[in-house]
Amino acid sequence: HTRGTLHILDRKGQEITDLVLSNNVSVIGDYAFYGASNLTSITISNSVTEIGEYAFDYKYVILVDLNNTVKVIEDAAFRHCEKLRKINGLDNLEAIGNYAFLACYDLSNVELPDSVSFIGKSAFERSGLRSINIPKSLDVISKSTFEETELNSIIIPKNVRFIDKCAFDNCIHL
What we know:
Elements: E1 18-20, E2 27-28, E3 41-43, E4 50-51, E5 63-65, E6 72-73, E7 86-88, E8 95-96, E9 109-110, E10 118-119, E11 131-132, E12 140-141, E13 162-163
Parallel strand pairs: 1-3, 2-4, 3-5, 4-6, 5-7, 6-8, 8-10, 9-11, 12-13
């Protein structure tokens, strides 16, 4: 795959900025919207359960609504979505892949449900994250997961048995 620009157009040839996926979609594949620089809002249908690797990488997305059906966000799915401010509909999320929200500078708060049992390495590295709840189901905090974030406090549940190297490296507000 080569890096380029993808323009999503409506029937009249106008660029679409707000993407609403239909109920016929169950998986957003790897690189599905890679390079679609015009997207600012994404509403995932209630039939989508997985978002593939690099699906929305390098976008200007501001808001994502996962409709409480997505279970897996794969590696780098929203990496470098620098303007991403809010993610709604995480109620059934189980896993967040490596680098999933790397360099999402405007993402300051994420409310993860207790169903999340895996957060990959560097998942939130260099994001604007100021607060996050660590799910009770999580027992490992992976390498560099929260490195260089804006976290100013964190409560680590007692079930966490391992914190990998650099998990909170350069979190100058902790």
